[in-house]
TrEMBL record:
It comes from Coprococcus catus. PANTHER family: HTH-TYPE TRANSCRIPTIONAL REGULATOR YBHD, NITROGEN ASSIMILATION TRANSCRIPTIONAL ACTIVATOR-RELATED. Residues 1-58 form the HTH lysR-type domain. GO terms for cellular component: cytosol. This is LysR family transcriptional regulator. One of its GO terms (molecular function) is DNA binding. InterPro entries: HTH-type_LysR_regulators, LysR_HTH_N, LysR_subst-bd, WH-like_DNA-bd_sf, WH_DNA-bd_sf. It comes from the Bacteria. Belongs to the LysR transcriptional regulatory family. Keywords: DNA-binding, Transcription, Transcription regulation. The keyword DNA-binding applies.
Length: 301
């Protein structure tokens, strides 16, 4: 059904006059008459009783007038809603960040970004890096902050951000506490306390241990790094955690931080999005802001 013809018909029916409708909506009477005839032909009904001296709708015409007016009102309201959503999407930026990375690096960056770009509506999803990558794939976020390397890297645009190291965390009374550096192979018979599988660090620990020739004996998995650090402090096992978060937030005399080697264990952070994704102005603003300000983070930690 032609919505313009329907709109003309509703205008005519509301005023009960072709002449008044033509004057009010600035359309010729002949054009209005043609639109009504087109509707009648399309619906195979008579809408206006042309045998009557006064303006009268047929039963079919009354139904079309009542229901058509409702339809046009719904379309008008839906159009306004769609336009509002489009305008909101232009202002919205959805970011996925693992809590560990957010705590160490991005809390201050996000605060300063919001201050510099007050018109951007920032939506933050704080979940493990593996879930962040899944959210990128599902299109539920625009930019994900992850730990490199990632699987299927060829499917993403990858923008490096920060870089540090992961380290071995042991109790001060542990036999390895006297070492300045340790190879992963030396941890073959240790009890591992690690972040759970929502974190990329979980998979990387297992993979690097396999590279070193063994599968880690994992006794505890947790989504909370501070819980793992406390477990180590109570000598319940060893853990591997990012150096920045341990140095910034955990200063226990019961814990020793030891450099890892063979293989080395970097903590490389990057921003990712799907290669085929349209890059919005908000995404560009955020990426440029992080790249240009990443080296200033240490001033705030």
């Amino acid at each position: 059904m032609n919505l313009k013809h329907l709109s003309y018909f509703v205008d005519i029916s509301k005023r009960e006059s072709f002449t008044k409708a033509a004057d009010d909506i600035y359309v010729s009477q002949s054009a209005l008459s043609k639109s009504v005839k087109s509707l009648e032909q399309e619906l195979n009904v008579t809408l206006i009783d042309r045998t009557s001296k006064s303006f009268n709708l047929t039963e079919e015409g009354r139904i079309l007038y009542v229901e058509g007016e409702k339809l046009l009102q719904y379309i008008d309201e839906s159009q306004d809603e769609i336009i509002e959503k489009i305008h909101r999407s232009r202002r919205r930026l959805r970011i996925g960040i693992p809590p560990v990375i957010s705590t160490v690096y991005f809390s201050h960056l996000l605060f300063r970004f919001i201050k510099q770009y007050p018109n951007i509506e920032l939506e933050i999803s704080e979940v493990g890096a593996n879930i962040v990558q899944n959210q990128i794939d599902a299109g539920s976020i625009d930019i994900g902050v992850v730990i490199l390397p990632i699987i299927n890297a060829e499917n993403y645009q990858i923008i490096p951000a920060m870089s540090s190291d992961n380290a071995l965390i042991v109790n001060k009374d542990h036999p390895l506490a006297s070492c300045d550096e340790v190879s992963l192979k030396e941890l073959e018979h240790e009890d591992f306390l690690i972040l759970d599988s929502t974190y990329m660090l979980h998979d990387r620990i297992i993979k690097n241990c396999e590279i070193a020739g063994f599968y880690p004996h994992i006794t505890t998995e947790s989504s909370q790094w501070d819980f793992l650090a406390e477990m180590v402090a109570y000598n319940q096992g060893i853990s591997i955690l990012p150096v920045p978060i341990m140095e910034r937030f955990y200063s226990s005399e019961r814990i020793k931080i030891i450099r890892l080697k063979e293989p080395e264990f970097p903590w490389n952070i990057a921003m990712i999005f799907k290669k085929e994704k349209l890059i919005t102005a908000q995404m560009e603003d955020f990426i440029h802001f992080v790249v240009n300000n990443k080296d200033t983070v240490k001033e705030y930690t």
